[in-house]
Amino acid sequence: MTTLAASVFQRLSRSNARLLAARDLGAGFGLAAWENAQDRVRYEETRHHVLSLYTEDGTKSRRVDRQAAAGHPGALSLMPQGASSEWQIDGHFRFVHLYIPDAELRAFAAETLDRPPAAVALPEVTFADDPVLAGLLGQLARAEGVLASRGIQVELLHHLLTAPGWGQAASAPRRGGLAAATLRRLRARIEEELDQPLRLADLAATAGLSEFHFQRAFRASTGLSPRAWVERRRMVRAEALIAEGQPLAEVAAACGFAHHAHLTRAFRKAHGVAPSVWRAGL
Domain 180-280, CATH 1.10.10.60 — does that match? Predict the structure, then answer.
């Protein structure tokens, strides 16, 4: 899975840690359950945001590159993208990791919270207690199917971006972006017309801007280019339809892919496997 090629996942795969389960959640997100014992692990410049939950024990696990108390069941840690850390494990414990791609987190903030991507900032957190967030991550680890997982994932990201002590999604003013009403209008049009070509000129006309200024304003508002945003929405819809068991030719048509092979190429690029293989693993 391309999602789980994240640096933390790779580092744990080379340590004493044993992978218990792994799931591709779509759109670049991944979930993995691990156990480890008698080990020392260093993570270097993580390529995803990583949210960690200790699910069993952890009282003999501690972070050694900064002062921190020992872990405990239910302890949450957050390693933002680009962070490094070192951990000493002197006993057996189990934990869950959620791998969160930065671009998707920023797009979620723009789409769901109507906040500019530049305002999103996640702190480093070590062994925090947050029963709501821990409960959501536990539910996500136990959820069956893409659709059930997505609902929990939305709640989790919203909490992560808005709860005290976690993300700060509202601190920076919007500069050079689209008006909130214009962005809502564009998002609605994209969702309604995902089965169509969605030309840049048409989207720019909806915003009342030239193509050049529209691309700059759209990126300032969402963190993605218009093309990348449309591709992301096509893939999210395709994942949902594939999970429901829809024929791939119908999925391709409903999501604006030229043909079945076009969908397969895009899906393989996003997930590392063909749609049929991904669906079989749900």
Answer: yes
What pLDDT was estimated at residue 257?
A: 95
| H-helix segments, the chain | 7-13, 102-112, 131-142, 146-162, 180-192, 200-207, 211-222, 226-243, 248-254, 260-271, 275-280
Task: Check residue 11 and give its pLDDT.
Answer: 76
DSSP code for 103: H
Q: Give the C-alpha separation, 47 to 67, whole Å.
A: 24
* Integer Cα distance of 25 and 204 in angstroms: 32
Determine the 3-state secondary structure of 124 from DSSP. coil
Alpha carbons 250 and 257: distance in angstroms, whole number: 10
The pTM (predicted TM-score) of the whole model is 0.79
Provide mean pLDDT across the span 127-148.
Answer: 89
Q: Which pairs from 230-237 meet CB under 8 Å and 24+ separation?
A: 230/190, 230/194, 230/198, 230/256, 231/266, 232/27, 232/104, 232/107, 233/190, 233/191, 233/194, 234/194, 234/266, 235/26, 235/27, 235/266, 235/267, 235/270, 236/26, 236/27, 237/194
**Two tokens at 262?**
């076009």
Arch. (CATH architecture) of 3-162 = Sandwich (2.60)
Q: What residue ranges do the domains of the chain occupy?
A: 3-162, 180-280
Cβ atoms of residues 230 and 252 within 8 Å: no
pLDDT band (50, 70, 90) for residue 1: very low
